[in-house]
Specification:
By secondary structure, this protein is of the alpha/beta class. The protein is about 40% helix and about 20% strand. It contains eight helices and seven strands.
Length: about 220
């Protein structure tokens, strides 16, 4: 196994449609070589309070294991008009990393979701943004919203497009697994191969896999 440590800021537990308890998800990630893991379960207005349950669940892990586990949410398939409101509510319930379920090409995400997420400074990561436009990339950069290269089946179909525009315009690109099941977790070595498949150049790998996600964590006081 590579000695490099993974930072994965987009995963799911039993608090939404994931298969694992937060503790098992964290333990599997720790064994696979992760230094940090965000648990970002799906939310909309019906269950935004789940952020507080995730935060409570990870406190014991953070205190006792050698892995940073960060509570978060993924705002998913909501009206674009409420993304900002939900992001602020999620923060109030303890979410430290906020992802928006972007306009992946394999799901009927509402058009305008990418732009609304990019315009919201409370959003940390625009997940699997599919055929994001250059204008939306520039807006995301202006609001310090990172763009995701996805390790998840289907969502990864847009990786090449996202990587190309992200690198061209200077976006903060991160690579996340979007884990739902045990086998979805991505080792550092596999993350490198996913990045190369998206034509991320060798000299950008450290930014994608280390420094860019570290920037997100530094905003919440975590220094790795």
């Amino acid at each position: 196994m590579s000695e490099n440590k993974r930072i994965d800021l987009h995963t799911h537990s039993i608090f939404s449609d994931g298969e694992l308890l937060p503790s098992e998800l964290a333990r599997r990630a720790e064994v696979l070589g992760h230094s940090a893991l965000a648990i970002t379960d799906h939310v909309d207005a019906s269950n935004i309070e789940v952020a507080s349950k995730i935060a409570e669940a990870v406190n014991d892990i953070r205190d006792n294991w050698d892995i940073e586990v960060i509570p978060g949410v993924e705002i998913t398939h909501t009206p674009v008009e409420v993304i900002d409101k939900l992001a602020n509510k999620a923060r109030s319930f303890g979410a430290e990393v906020i992802v928006v379920h972007g306009e992946t090409i394999v799901e009927p995400v509402r058009p305008g979701t990418n732009r609304a997420a990019a315009e919201c400074p409370e959003i940390d990561i625009l997940g699997h943004p599919g055929l994001i436009t250059p204008e939306e990339v520039e807006i995301a950069i202006d609001n310090d919203v990172s763009l995701e290269i996805s390790g998840r089946k289907g969502h990864c179909f847009g990786n090449g497009h996202v990587a190309k525009l992200g690198l061209e315009y200077g976006a903060n690109l991160v690579l996340d697994s979007d884990t739902h099941a045990p086998d979805d977790l991505v080792s550092y070595d596999l993350a490198v191969r996913i990045a190369r498949g998206a034509e991320i150049p060798e000299n950008e790998l450290d930014n994608l896999l280390k420094y860019n996600p570290q920037k997100i964590l530094k905003k919440i006081g975590i220094n790795l």
